[in-house]
């Protein structure tokens, strides 16, 4: 049975933590869920202390009741493996599981996620719990998905304890084989760091000054893999005991420690948690980047929005509410970017504990509230378009993003601490979003042949293999746009021979002589606008200069290479210039926006599948907007699904359109 068949359409629901409430409340919960169209809930994320109150003494009776009631109501469960927050007895009996910070502080229990990812004791206890849980719930009618852990690395992404040090050394031995290879990779001849044995190597604990950058970079990779190993231990048990139940975990959006690309193919579905800040007017653009990345990481498959807030969160300095319509708009936005499920944290607002001021689908004030009414209305709306589930998003522009490069770029001792990988990606993704162009966000090793234009906002770290892949893409007729400080170092943070852009030199038709990071707040005149952050002294070697600074230094170049073109941007132009630069590259590549002539602030996205084409229109502004359609389409959210040639979107409004109404498709 496919995921879509199991849910019968799009997934809708949230984290359900009824343990916080007297048993009687569950009857009301289930009734309200049914009324609100909830068909999927995540259960048991913080259940460990309850199901294993003492070592190896399992008591599933509480969750049995919850699972049975949900099954009876037809609600599918994404059952958590409950390993995200170890119970107090485990930390008391085995304090060695506690994580240690870079400066040697042991993190205490009393919050959550207080475990060292390399701890054999933690891993063993988690595995035993998962075995018991999977064996107990296999075949349960409510069990639809396994939710492994919870937001890996959210609080503890790296541990610097002795156990982690041993695990790091084992990882390094596997990676380098012998210590001389490590010395060469880490350039340890500098600063007298030459090792004569792996046993001398430590995690990059707090040191008098910069720790070796290659050591820091390897530690980030190692830490990502240590977390991933925790996931894999659990997933292997689940796949053995319940081979038909899909396995997922929930990634955080824009989460630096966890390389989603290196985990995604181990998931049946990519799950993503997304908490855009309602106070930030462009946060939906950053969210879009995260969604396109989640989809791109799993071959374009539909992904699940596993958590979002119904209204405010409680963990920002100031926690803005989602004004009327915003929760609906941002939920549909996830679907526009390929999500097949829209879930929230959490169902009923906590009475006590750390998250009682985090909004919920059922607020403290009860169901007769704006937030709950909007939740229930969204549930009804999603249930009305089940045919969207399983359809796909296809784009002909790709933006490249890479965790290794992110880690390396943001280490200490760089030319400027102003370069942040996600911001750099947004400097390119934002104008593409505004131009109405759909984008797939992909890792540098992805197959780029389907794309007309590939944008590389910043890949400071680019391996020879990936650079040659990009050059090959261009020479075979592809169009590439690369921004500054790309292809500077190899996988060990060693500068490419000859400097930047290393193996991309021929394709770009230039070389960089000197980086000129801007002073804080410094602005340069450029064309009829400005630029900031960075400049480079570039020597063209065949590339044409499309735009130059007043002193003649190139700002944007274009090189013909093979049958394609490669542009290079040596600075951060202002938004208007960047949009024009990208528009020109798009035009040359023949890449089109989803819909021509869209009014400002309206996003259009297409999903196709099952013989149908859907067009989603999202008004991200606080004013009404009218969109003329190129041909008549059925308005699927309007009563009777009428055919329309024009859509007026109220502030924060959404329209879902299709060429055929459902009856004509089926
Ligand atoms: C996530 C977490 C949830 C909840 C939520 C609040 O990080 O997975 O358990 O804490 O944040 O926004």
From TrEMBL:
Superkingdom: Bacteria
Q: Which UniProt keywords apply?
A: Glycosidase, Hydrolase, Metal-binding, Zinc
Report the GO terms under cellular component.
beta-galactosidase complex
From the UniProt record, list the reaction(s) this protein catalyses: Hydrolysis of terminal non-reducing beta-D-galactose residues in beta-D-galactosides
* Catalytic center residues: 151, 307
Q: Where does Zn(2+) bind?
A: 116, 159, 161
Residue intervals of the Beta-galactosidase trimerisation domain: 396-590
**What name appears for this protein in its UniProt entry?**
Beta-galactosidase
Q: Which organism is it from?
A: Nonomuraea pusilla
């Amino acid at each position: 049975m496919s995921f879509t068949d199991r849910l019968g359409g799009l997934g809708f629901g949230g984290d359900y933590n009824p343990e916080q409430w007297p048993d009687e409340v569950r009857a009301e919960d289930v009734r309200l869920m049914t009324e609100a169209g909830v068909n999927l809930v995540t259960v048991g994320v913080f259940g460990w202390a309850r199901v294993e109150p003492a070592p190896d003494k399992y008591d599933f009776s509480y969750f049995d009741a919850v699972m049975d009631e949900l099954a009876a109501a037809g609600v599918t469960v994404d059952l958590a493996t409950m390993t995200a927050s170890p119970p107090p007895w485990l930390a008391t009996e085995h304090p060695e599981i506690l994580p240690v910070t870079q400066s040697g502080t042991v993190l205490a229990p009393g919050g959550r996620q207080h475990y060292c990812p390399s701890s054999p004791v933690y891993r063993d206890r988690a595995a035993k719990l998962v075995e018991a849980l999977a064996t107990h719930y296999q075949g349960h009618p409510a069990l639809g998905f396994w939710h492994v852990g919870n937001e890996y690395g959210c609080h503890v992404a790296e541990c610097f304890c002795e156990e982690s040090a041993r695990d790091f050394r084992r990882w390094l031995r596997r990676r380098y084989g012998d210590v001389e290879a490590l010395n060469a990779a880490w350039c340890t001849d500098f600063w007298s760091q030459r090792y004569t044995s792996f046993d001398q190597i430590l995690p990059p604990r707090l040191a008098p000054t910069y720790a070796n950058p290659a050591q820091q970079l390897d530690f980030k990779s190692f830490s990502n893999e240590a977390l991933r190993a925790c996931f894999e231990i659990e997933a292997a048990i689940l796949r053995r005991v319940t081979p038909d139940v899909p396995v997922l975990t929930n990634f955080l959006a824009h989460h630096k420690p966890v390389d989603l690309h290196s985990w995604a193919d181990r998931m049946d579905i990519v799950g993503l948690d997304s908490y855009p800040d309602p106070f930030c007017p462009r946060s939906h653009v950053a969210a879009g980047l995260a969604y396109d990345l989640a989809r791109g990481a799993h071959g374009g498959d539909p992904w699940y929005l596993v958590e979002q807030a119904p209204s405010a969160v409680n963990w920002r300095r100031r926690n803005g509410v989602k004004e009327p319509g915003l929760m609906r708009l941002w939920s549909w936005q996830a679907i526009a970017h390929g999500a097949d499920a829209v879930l929230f944290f959490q169902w009923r607002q906590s009475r006590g504990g750390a998250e009682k001021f985090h909004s919920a689908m059922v607020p403290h004030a009860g169901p007769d509230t704006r937030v709950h009414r909007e939740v229930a209305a969204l549930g009804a709306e999603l249930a009305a378009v089940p045919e969207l589930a399983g359809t796909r998003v296809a784009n002909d522009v790709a933006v490249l993003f890479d965790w290794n490069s992110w880690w390396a770029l943001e280490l200490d001792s760089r030319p400027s601490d102003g370069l942040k990988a996600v911001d750099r990606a947004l400097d390119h993704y934002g104008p593409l979003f505004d131009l109405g162009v759909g984008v797939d966000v992909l890792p540098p090793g992805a197959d780029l042949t389907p794309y007309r234009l590939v944008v590389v906002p910043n890949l400071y770290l680019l391996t020879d293999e990936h650079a040659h892949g990009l050059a090959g893409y261009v020479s075979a007729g592809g169009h590439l746009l690369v921004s500054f400080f790309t292809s500077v170092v190899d996988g060990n943070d060693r500068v490419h021979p000859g400097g930047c852009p290393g193996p991309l030199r021929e394709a770009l038709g230039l070389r960089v002589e000197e980086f000129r990071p801007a002073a804080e707040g410094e602005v340069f005149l450029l064309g009829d606008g400005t630029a900031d952050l960075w400049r480079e002294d570039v020597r063209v070697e065949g590339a044409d200069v499309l735009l130059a600074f007043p002193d003649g230094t190139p700002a944007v170049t274009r090189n013909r290479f093979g049958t394609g073109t490669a542009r290079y941007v040596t600075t951060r132009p202002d938004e208007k210039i960047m949009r024009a630069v990208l528009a020109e590259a798009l035009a040359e590549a023949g890449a089109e926006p989803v819909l021509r002539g869209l009014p400002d602030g309206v996003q259009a996205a297409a999903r196709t599948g099952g013989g149908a084409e859907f067009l989603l229109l999202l008004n991200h502004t606080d004013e009404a907007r009218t969109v003329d359609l190129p041909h008549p389409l059925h308005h699927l959210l309007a009563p009777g699904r009428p055919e329309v040639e024009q859509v007026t979107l109220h502030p924060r409004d959404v329209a879902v359109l299709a060429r055929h109404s459902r009856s004509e498709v089926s």
